[in-house]
Write the structure tokens for this entry.
Amino acid sequence: MAEVRVERLTKRYGSATAVDELDLTVRDGEFLTLLGPSGCGKTTTLRCIAGLEEPDAGTVSIGGRVMSASERKLFVRPERRDIGMVFQSYALWPHMTVSANVAYPLKLRRVPSAERDRRVGEMLELVGLAEFAGRSATSLSGGQQQRVAVARALVSAPRVLLFDEPLSNLDTRLRATMGAELRAIHARTGTTSICVTHDQTEALTLSDRVVVMRDGRVEQAGTPEEIFVTPRTRFVAHFVGFDAALPGRVVELDGGMAYVRIDGTDRVVRCRPGSDLPLDAAVDLMLRSSAVSVQPAEHDDGALNRVPGVVVDRAFQGETVQFTLDVAGHRLLAQVPSHATGGQAEAGRIDEGPVEVVLPEAGAFAFLAEHRAHAAERPAAPVGPTGLPLPADDLGLPTTLGGDPR
């Protein structure tokens, strides 16, 4: 095991800066995940740690030993860094058996055959593939091939284990199973591990700590619960699933809470400030659509966190019903458990027409809306086919979670 320290790391591709003076410490024995959208610099950071890319500036140290230092023109090649790496594509030798693939790093190190066989056997037992040792690696399922790749990365007892989108090629069910298995393997080996992913569920499942990256820098770092429950910026909130937003203005600050009047209404929402907010600040109220409740309009009493709305679309999605709502001309989504809405909706009580929208207090955050001019000066938003303004894309935030091209 070893601590990994990255200081003022910078990597450029032509005029584009992929990693921008990044500082990062991975503790000894920690499982840390770099999370972010395409192009945020997470994969480039991993490749610089691995020695697959040479940084333009900054230092990378593993276990107290400097592996790269641009100012000193020091660069240690990947094979001398004592790391293991699990690639997105598995990178297994198709002409080799499972055991031969796992043994390959030991063969390169000229480990004696008896010791090599013992360590390969231990690794295959660890990942539950001992009975497949003689099979061709490419005859296995995707999940089994991933476990072969993990065994191969661990067999030489590296000080650091690196994962590049390790679960992205697996289907949803298998991804959840393999995530739990990787977590269990980490608990048994204690190897310092760094994972790169764009999938927030994967990051939350695997990690002791998550680092959300944006434009080559750290946007927020914390435990999975801290990142998921208390995002510090609009970018992080949107990325980890705060998919519903309403514009408003701060009318009061009290007891660590903000009171926001929703634009176009006289209704006020009590919420948590995502940062220091001045009075009368234009903000975006961000929350998860799954936390929004929809009730028949006759319950509307003008209380805090209750705003009038109109259902313009209703889509049954199995476990949930998705409502598209018009709140004072603003589009808002609500994901409501279907068992809670089925009877009312089928009776026509919650279908199309006026409703009361109930917004959460603890699960709603107000972030400064720097992109937005004063309401009186703001140009009209683009209108979608329902006649409502188009959704949170206009927040200037990522709307897709594709893989990092770097």
The first helix runs from residue 42 to 50. The CA atoms of residues 45 and 206 lie 19 Å apart.
